[in-house]
Amino acid sequence: MSSGGGQQSQALTKPTFSEVQASALVESVFGLKVSKIQPLPSYDDQNFHVCILRTKDTTDGPNEYVLKISNSESSKTPDLIEVQSHIIIFLRVAGFPTASVCRTKEDNLTSLISVDSGSEIKSYLVRLLTYLPGRPIAEIPISPQLLYEIGRVAAKLDKTLEKFHHPKLSSLHRENFIWNLKNVPLLEKYLYALGQNRNREIVEQVVQLFKDEVMTKLSHFRECINHGDLNDHNILIESSKSTFGDAVYQVSGILDFDDMSYGYYVFEVAITIMYMMIESKTPIQVGGHVLAGFESVVPLTPVERDALFLLVCSRFCQSLVLAAYSCQLYPENKEYLMITAKTGWKHLQQMFDMGQKAVEEIWFETAKSYESEISM
Fold this sequence. Notes:
alpha+beta; cytoplasm; Aminoglycoside 3'-phosphotransferase, Chain: A, domain 2; 2 domains; three-stranded antiparallel sheet; Kinase-like_dom_sf; 10 strands; five-stranded antiparallel sheet
């Protein structure tokens, strides 16, 4: 959902390219002629859905793409964006449904574009990815089978990235990146965006519990590279008919690798559970199905399991606090920024009111039921 480490410095750095300007970029940087272009929703970058005209040179390739224009803060970290692009390529080769990264006319993965805004010159990194088919899972009723599959994909992705190597891999150690779960205490400087209310009180309690109970255990968690944003708009699905004639969904696309950073396996499953709860009519039940899928690939240790409840609450706090803050920066983008807030505060309060023990009992019993099914 975000691409920058320091939110406050990004007040005026979101790109504002028009459709005509974006079309010109596709042609000048990538050598493709645009037939149709339209903006896509985004957090603090700018994305366009691009259709290209067929020519004698492009008869065999895809004709739909996503043009990604990074905000000017993220554009100052080209090594990070290069590593993210190579990860997308690596995962596609490994069989994951990620996009293909298109090369520029100069055979690079990115291009740095400078724009004179009058008062200063700003630079933006530009990339072009193939457009993936499928529907965001936010648009369909989500079943236990699909939740299990999403948990499994999340674990396989992190596990596969153990084999990824790149000379600039250290760029994924993003120490003050606001969206990394270990940086939950950094939320304190944005709490003013909530005003004084029950929501703020809950966030303050979660942050304090995180400091007391999670920060002290980080050294016991197993480290890995996290996607970090497997939300209900970044996972695409397609349906097929089962032998019984009903629809079976499978993951057909994984989007938005901009929040990738070094984290822990338990972070990935916590983030995934939180986002899968957003659209669910039975949000508390979601965690067990996602956890079962994740643990079919990477079983959590007892200390990781013990932290899961608080990590899910913490991700709710990150998303809700930063959405409220970002709405003050970009009021014109409020509808997109507040997607999580529509149900998120209600779900966080419900988890907090039920308490860790009651929620864990539901999650762990549900996950256990999959073990007995597999062993039968």
